[in-house]
Task: structure prediction
Amino acid sequence: MSLLEVNDLQVSFVTRMGTNKAVDGISFSVEIGKITAIIGESGSGKSVACYSMLGLIPQPPGRIDGGQALFEGQDLLQMSEAQLREIRGRDIAMIFQDPMTCLNPFMTIGKQLVEPLLYHKDVSKEQAKRRAIELLEEVGIRDPEDTFDNFPHQFSGGMRQRVMIAMALINEPKLLIADEPTTALDVTIQAQILKLIAELQTKRDIGVIFISHDLAVVADIADQIIVMQQGKVVEGGDSQHIFHNAEHPYTQKLLSAIPADSKQPMEGETEPLIQVRKLCTWFEQGKNKEPVKAVNDVSFDINRGEVLGLVGESGSGKSTIGRSILRLVPITSGQVSFDETDVTQLQGGNLKNFRRRMQMIFQDPFASLNPRMTVFDTLAEPLLLHGIANRKTVASGVLKLMDDVGLARNFVRKYPHEFSGGQRQRIAIGRALATSPEFVVADEPVSALDVTIQAQILDLMQDLGKEYGLTMLFVSHDLAVVRHLADRILVLYKGEIVEQGTGEDLFERPQQEYTRQLLQSIPGRALLS
Amino acid sequence: MTTDVISDITEAEQGSSLWHDAWLRLRKNKMALFGGITLLLFVIIAILTPLIAPYSYETQNLDLGATPPSAAHWLGTDIFGRDLLTQVMYGGRISLAVGFVATSVALVIGITWGAIAGYVGGRVDAVMMRLVDILYALPFMIFIVLLMVVFGRNVLLLFLAIGAVEWLTMARIMRSQVQQLRQQEFVEAAISLGLPPHTIIRRHLIPNALGPIIVYTTLTIPSVMLLEAFLSFLGLGIQPPQTSWGLLISYGAETMEEFPWLLIFPGLALTLTLFSLNFLGDGLRDALDVRRSKD
Result:
């Protein structure tokens, strides 16, 4: 008997706008000791399916229309809220995407760990604490005795996710549901967490449902893969089968969205457009404290027309370098010259003029657009500011930008919240290109997006890069993406450059230990080669 | 299709899209519209009062005394035989003027001060906000008495004095809003486009901070009106025979048991104004929040 068997599950959301079938008759099963991955883009119903089984979707507007979810032979959908509460956290546990928002910032992690244990099991506080410390050790938290009374903010993102995993495992569940547990994490940390989940699953012999938008992430750990699109299962089966003999076009599209090629470096020599010399950007921490050396003595050139990739984990200073060049953070020392002008000294009108020539594309398209400005206002602003268009010509300028970035013209009067993540990123790219800049810093422009959308945006950036003759600094934690786009790559670690070279150099002949570590962290490496 | 889009844009260009869209949404909100129209009506009556008031507000008729509403005196008369309708109309002039002028003063100073302090940050912020703290700590009454002593009693000065006190809270709300907003990437994007700080504050920060400001404004206007009544009661504001709703209410409250209409009608006028303000304020807040709209 399967641990969990879902038959023809149907869930819909009833709103004023009509009924929306979020999950449209899906069936799958989870075996003990196996990892089942559910793959799909945002809105495909993959999370709703799992949440609805546990009674975790608000009803209304949610509504379960039919089907069965047999957990050890009992139908979860027929259970009362009280019965479900018994099962949640004890037999079925969950891990969520963002460990920061799922942990209570005002409670020590120890207290939060012990809580479900005391609720579900008849144990003393002492026993519970001992149990919790054992588990923290098992999920790889160093010195669990000491960190037991720490608050969530004292842990890094990866460590918090480990705490979340420990919390999920504390009642020894039989089924673990992990909803995008690594999406908010760096590549290297992601690799560690994936390994941890796979290890724990084997050791404890439990069933795991792993929800993700990214096929590559689950490539190394999943036994079974179910691909969902618009509430339906389009393809499912053994993971080897999915990776090598996928039949459905959507699955093939997902597979091809994994960037697997190396860009051919630029032909011919060009002169450098940007020269960075001994750049230091330190952040003061207040008196009597060492400043954070976010960028420390970094020198490099970016040639005209080149795409330079900048790779590193969170805190490596890669975003700070981009912002330092653009004068968005004050630098501590060093020189940045753009077209042979020292930009660190520019003031007033000269600075404004220089800003026209250098633009930035931000990571989070939900935060980088003013929510109260329409697409028109957002795109018109730079055109009018720099006198590229006047009141009469601005409309056609805006429409041309929309055409360039592939947005339908009739969206012009809409506000950012009416768009999907990918569309928003297109607006943000349009804004950056409005001034026809020569140089663009792209700071993780695709890491907040679904894989298929990622591929589209990357293609768009590549095309526009050629069309506008852009020089680009492409900042990312994802080596595979950078290799796909960049002519040369710099690897950054703790504010310093540890290695540089073409994509091929780094992938085939990495010199430094850290680079090797990064390479090994790329999800689904097996698929790439 | 294309030409439609273009003509649509040029039309929108008359003003910023946000305000244009907000107006379209506000028009659909019946309660807000009711509030707005009522307020407008009150303001028009207040302006026209000297022309349309049925009696003079000064003329006493001690023989008549306090009479309940009648055909000659729709709202009755007070103990001095003055027509209450006339008094409510004249009182509205003062109360509405205090409410709107003092609140506008508070809004302009508070939003500007708070936005600059929040946006610039650092030392500038510290100095600006300490100044606010000092003014907070200053006893309000002494402040007003001082102003009156130095400059003489004057209605306009009273407005300014009240406004000068009310802006402090406004500045604090605005500052905390701006501090949150300036962390967002769209502000960084605006900087990297080369927008000057005043444009960033005006176009990117203030529109996004308006929600709480509007709510606080609708709370400020009535509290300002009551403050005026309090000051007048102490002899620092309006003096008889001039009057305001606040004064009428406080006199009415004294004789509530014998002559209830002296309390009821001025009270009704103030209540209706406050309701209208709240409806309009809520409507404005929703209309400006583009995410709430479903069209």
Notes: The mean pLDDT of chain A is 85.
